[in-house]
Write a structure and sequence with these properties.
Strand order of the largest sheet: 4-3-2-1-5
Number of strands: 8
Radius of gyration: 42 Å
Structural class: alpha+beta
Number of domains: 3
Distance between the termini: 156 Å
Helix content: 40-55%
Shape: elongated
Strand content: 15-25%
Order of helices and strands: HHHHEEEEHEEHEEHH
C-alpha cells in the first residue's frame, strides 16, 4: 500500500536547486565578513601602535620643551593618546556596519547616565579642570593640603599626587583640594622662619638681643630686608624666652634653620650668656599611715595621771 506525499511539500530536487543557488551568496557574505574582520583587526593594531608610538614621542618632546608648563604635560600626552584610541574604535565599528551617528548618540546617552550615577567623580573632574585653569600650584611645587605636605608629582583629572617629605605617596581627590585651603610653600621667593631661645632671667635682655642680631648679620643667607628681629615672647620665673625671626630665600630654607640655631647657640656661649637652670623640686618625705595601738597601750593612755 503506497502513501501519497502532500502536494505542499517541495521536492528534493527543488530543495537542492535552492541550496545551490544560495551558496554563492553565502560564500560572498562569508568572504566579506572575513575581509571586514581582518581590516578591523589591522585598524585596531595600527591605531594601538600609533597611539603608543605617538604618545612616547610626544612625551619626549614636551619633556624637553620649556614652553609647556609641567602641569599640562601629562594631560597633553594622555589626551592625544586617548583621542587616537577613540578614533580607532569608531573606525573598527564602522567596518562592521555600525553607524557612527547612532554610536555617538548612544555614547551620549550612556555618558549622561554615567554622569548622573557618578556625580562625585565628575566633581573631581570639574575641580581638576579648575586647578589647571587657576593654577594655585604646579608640578614640583611644595604644598600643604588636606593635612598633607609635600611636592606635587602630578595633577590629574580625578586626583592629585604628592610625595611627602618623608617619602610617602599621597593621592588626594581634586574636589577635596579645591574645596579646602591650599598653602603653596614654594610659590613666593622669600619665606620667614621663627625659632625660640631661652636665657636665664637674670641676663640683660638688651645685651642678649644685640648679641643675637650681630650673629645673624654675619650670615649672608639671611635677608637684610625685612630685617631680622629678636623679640621677648615670655617672662618666666627662671627664664626669659626670646623669639628670633629671619627672612630667607625659599631655595635656602630647607637647610638653614638648623645651622642658624647652632650659630646663635655658639654666639651666646661665647658671650657667656647663662641658660636657665631648672630649680629642683623640694624633697617631700613619703607619708606613712599610723600604726594601730595595742589594747595594753590604749588602756595605759586612758589611766588618769
Amino acid at each position: 500500500m503506497s502513501v501519497a506525499l502532500p502536494a505542499a511539500l517541495p521536492s528534493v530536487a527543488a530543495v537542492q536547486s535552492s541550496v545551490k543557488g544560495a551558496l554563492p551568496a553565502l560564500t560572498v557574505m562569508a568572504v566579506d565578513g572575513a575581509f571586514n574582520f581582518l581590516i578591523a583587526v589591522l585598524i585596531l593594531i595600527a591605531g594601538w601602535m600609533v597611539a603608543r608610538w605617538l604618545g612616547r614621542w610626544l612625551h619626549d618632546v614636551v619633556d624637553r620643551s620649556r614652553l609647556i608648563d609641567e602641569t599640562l604635560k601629562p594631560l597633553l600626552v594622555n589626551g592625544v593618546r586617548y583621542t587616537i584610541l577613540a578614533v580607532t574604535v569608531v573606525l573598527v565599528l564602522s567596518q562592521f556596519g555600525v553607524q557612527t551617528t547612532s554610536l555617538i548618540a548612544l555614547l551620549g546617552a550612556a555618558g549622561l547616565a554615567v554622569g548622573l550615577a557618578l556625580q562625585g567623580t565628575l566633581s573631581n573632574v570639574a575641580s581638576g579642570v579648575m586647578l589647571l585653569v587657576l593654577r594655585p600650584f604646579r608640578v614640583y611645587e611644595k604644598i600643604r593640603v588636606a593635612d598633607a605636605t609635600g611636592k606635587v608629582r602630578e595633577i590629574g583629572l580625578f586626583r592629585t599626587e604628592i610625595v611627602t617629605d618623608d617619602g610617602n605617596f599621597v593621592s588626594i581627590p581634586n574636589a577635596t583640594i579645591f574645596s579646602g585651603t591650599i598653602v603653596n610653600i614654594s610659590r613666593e621667593r622669600n619665606r620667614r622662619t621663627n625659632f625660640t631661645v631661652k636665657i636665664d632671667r637674670a641676663e640683660n635682655i638688651d645685651a642678649v638681643q644685640k648679641t643675637i642680631l650681630e650673629c645673624l648679620a654675619r650670615d649672608r643667607r639671611i635677608l637684610e630686608k625685612p630685617a631680622p628681629t629678636v623679640e621677648v615672647e615670655s617672662l618666666g620665673a627662671i627664664s626669659t624666652t626670646l623669639t628670633v625671626q629671619v627672612w630667607l630665600e625659599n631655595r635656602d630654607f630647607g637647610g638653614v634653620l638648623s645651622d642658624l640655631k647652632k650659630r646663635v647657640r655658639h654666639a651666646l656661649q661665647d658671650a657667656e650668656v647663662a641658660a636657665p637652670v631648672p630649680v629642683p623640686a623640694p624633697a617631700v618625705a613619703p607619708w606613712t599611715p599610723p600604726t594601730e595601738m595595742q589594747p595594753e597601750q590604749k588602756a595605759e593612755n586612758k589611766r588618769p595621771n
